[in-house]
Design brief:
The structure holds two protein chains of two kinds. Chain A is mainly α. Chain A has two domains: 59 residues, no CATH class; 169 residues, MetI-like fold. Chain A has 13 helices and no strands. Chain A starts with a helix and ends in an 8-residue tail after the last helix. Chain B is an alpha+beta fold. Chain B has two domains: 223 residues, Rossmann fold (3-Layer(aba) Sandwich), CATH 3.40.50.300; 102 residues, Beta Barrel (OB fold (Dihydrolipoamide Acetyltransferase, E2P)). Helix content of chain B is 24%, strand content 35%. In chain B, the strands form four sheets. A six-stranded mixed β-sheet of chain B has the order 6-7-8-3-9-10, with helices on both faces. In chain B, strands 13-12-11-14-19 form a five-stranded antiparallel β-sheet. In chain B, strand 16 and strand 17 form a beta hairpin. Chain B is elongated, with a radius of gyration of 24 Å. In chain B, 43% of the residues are buried. The chains are: A mainly alpha, B alpha+beta.
Chain lengths: 284, 348
């Protein structure tokens, strides 16, 4: 091979030029990734919407019979609806608290210079250095003393401490992505600091804030340890299912799994537009 | 009336002194350019006038009102930023209307002003677009229109053209000059581009190391630099400098020739001359040509005089080759002298 041909071939080929092997690799990856997400959800739903006999039967048809028996039984099971409501309540409280506290901290970190800024950032992360099992008992004792035990608010406070490092650091980078000049321009055009924030910064950071709110929501929704330790009567769905489903028949476990997955899916679906929206592109 | 007075304004960032006691008065409707290299404090001074930065000491007065304790929105200013700062979530129309809406102006007046300034900046066909759909030049126009729509007493501009490409910059420069002259506002314009400064300014304040070295008309700054720095910063190529020593005859000797110096000058001065103020004539400075750069109408000759770099712009008819010996005669009325101790100009 001459030097000239080496030089000619020594450049990356265009994506449209990929050979059969490349195309195979591409589509295999796509299929595998989709399967990774969709197959468990599919199996969950097939079994949820099948009669108890079909769940344990073999061979499988792979098609749900839309027998609502399991679902109805599950929903009428004492405490399920209350646990579901508790889960939603705690997750929404966690979301509001962690954004309400985390976003101002993120804004301050991104816009102001203050003594101890680096230490503060470190400390925010340090809250995750203590494992929850270690903290759960003292927290439980403390909550009992001040009457916060077995309440959605008490659990939401614990979940907030779990979610807040992410809320602070994510909103910090979101605010840092908004040029300070935009705010300064608003100040020179007649805004005070709060008005500039409302009219200029807020609309621009909303997608990012939404994303980090969803994250806080799912952290709380999925959390089971603190929920199991800190609540007795007012269990969240995860804690409730952990307690009752281990002794339940298979078809009820599927119904319980679906009940955990569906609200999270619906919630993410509802706010997805704010996650992907970029000004001037997706929204217009 | 919006005369701006800056009285003893100083600014420190920690132990770093960004501005050393600045005193400057800018007349009503004057176009003042703050010119200097990056880090000289020009943007800091502009931001102090805008109220985006507070001075460590000193006072700022706009239109007879002391404003240094007021927030930006109460100073009667509008500002154009280097990166335009066009709000990406609003249309061009709403961007221009932003400040007017903050003033709770009636819709009819908002409409009238937006339409008028958009026409002025030739962006009336872009009013429905978002900033993401605009080119750099168009964003710049929106930023200027947004400032003009406020009908402010003072417009502050922070290197507004530096992000545009060369051709567009030239076009916008001429346009800005026309628009701002008609708007009858006082303008303070920060730039590091001396050509921009020369072509736009009524007066230029040359800044260096947190101080104003000279504040004068563009021609004055060019012809009679108040300090060595001004001569070496302004002009392309900049001024030539050579050491000069006074002899017993009272004349100053520069690289082998004798010249009449300023009567009040010390025994040692620095001789300075602009490259275009040299002619090839006998009896001048002995120079050895090193690099010849024909520029069309003129030829830029980089020479060596007494071991120092020395540039001359000569008529392109004159044939010169590298290595040639030249005699460069300075025009007597264009020779300038500086004190080597203080770097200040020494005049007669």
């Amino acid at each position: 091979m001459t030097a000239a041909t080496v030089a000619a071939e020594d450049k990356p080929r265009a994506v449209s030029d990929i050979g059969v092997a490349g195309r195979f690799l591409f589509w295999t990856s796509v299929v595998l990734l989709c399967a990774w997400v969709l197959v468990p959800i599919y199996l969950l739903f097939v079994n949820t919407f099948s009669s108890p006999q079909e769940v344990t039967a073999f061979p499988k048809t792979g098609v749900p019979s839309f027998d609502m028996g399991s679902v109805n039984f599950f929903l009428s099971f004492t405490g399920v609806l209350k646990a579901l409501w508790n889960s939603v309540l705690v997750a929404v409280l966690t979301m509001l608290l962690s954004i309400g506290i985390g976003a101002p901290a993120g804004y301050a970190l991104s816009r102001f210079e203050f003594p101890g800024k680096a230490t503060f950032r470190m400390l925010v992360l340090m809250t995750r250095a203590f494992p929850l099992p270690l903290l759960a008992l003292p927290i439980a004792v403390m909550f009992i003393r001040i009457g916060l035990d077995d309440t959605p608010l008490g659990l939401a406070l614990v979940h907030t401490t779990l979610a807040i490092p992410f809320a602070v650091l994510v909103t910090f980078s979101i605010f840092s992505g908004i040029p300070i000049e935009l705010e300064e321009a608003a100040w020179t055009l007649g805004c005070n600091r709060l008005q500039a924030f409302q009219k200029v910064v807020m609309p621009l950071v909303l997608p990012g804030i939404t994303a980090s709110a969803i994250f806080a929501f799912t952290i709380s929704w999925n959390e089971v340890f603190a929920a199991a330790v800190l609540t007795v009567e007012n269990r969240t769905l995860t804690a409730f299912l952990l307690q009752s489903l281990s002794v339940s028949p298979l078809h009820l476990r599927f119904a319980g799994g679906a009940a955990l997955v569906v609200p999270a899916l619906v919630f993410i679906f509802a706010v997805r537009k704010y996650m992907f929206a970029m000004w001037g592109i997706a929204n217009r | 009336m919006a005369e701006i007075q800056i009285k003893g304004v100083a600014k420190s960032f920690g132990s770093f002194k960004a501005l050393h006691s600045i005193d400057l008065t800018i007349a009503d409707q004057e176009f003042m350019v703050l010119l200097g290299a990056s880090g000289c404090g020009k943007t800091t001074l502009l931001r102090i006038i805008a109220g985006l930065e507070s001075p460590t000491q000193g006072e700022v007065w706009i239109g007879g009102r002391r404003v240094d304790q007021l927030p930006p929105r109460e100073r009667g200013i509008a500002m154009v930023f280097q990166n335009y700062a066009v709000f990406p979530h609003l249309t061009v129309y709403e961007n221009i209307a932003f400040g007017l809406r903050m003033k709770k102006m009636p819709q009819a007046e908002v409409e009238r002003r937006v339409t008028r300034t958009a026409e002025l900046m030739h962006i009336e066909q872009l009013l429905k677009r978002y900033s993401g759909q605009l080119s750099g030049g168009q964003r710049q126009r929106v930023a200027v229109a947004r400032a003009l729509a406020m009908e402010p007493d003072v417009i502050l501009m922070d290197e507004p053209l530096s992000n545009l490409d060369a051709l567009l910059r030239l076009e916008m420069r001429a346009e800005l000059k026309g628009v701002l002259a008609n708007s009858k506002t006082t303008t303070i314009y920060v730039t590091h581009d001396q050509v921009e400064a020369m072509s736009l300014a009524d007066r230029i304040s040359v800044m260096n190391g947190g101080r104003i070295v000279q504040a004068a008309s563009p021609v004055e700054v060019y012809r009679n630099p108040a300090a060595r720095f001004v001569g070496s910063f302004i002009g392309n190529p900049p001024m030539n400098f050579l050491p000069a020593r006074r002899n017993g005859d009272g004349r100053y000797h520069v690289a082998g020739i004798a010249l009449d110096g300023p009567p009040k000058g010390g025994p040692e001065l620095e001789f300075a001359i602009r490259p275009e103020d040299l002619t090839v004539a006998p009896g001048g400075l002995k120079a050895t040509a090193r690099v010849i750069e024909p520029l069309g109408a003129h030829t830029l000759v980089t020479t060596e005089v007494d071991g120092a770099l020395f540039r001359a712009i000569v008529d392109s008819d004159i044939r010169i080759a590298p290595g040639d010996e030249l005699s460069l005669m300075p025009k007597p009325d264009r020779v300038r002298w500086f004190d080597p101790e203080t770097s200040q100009a020494v005049t007669a």
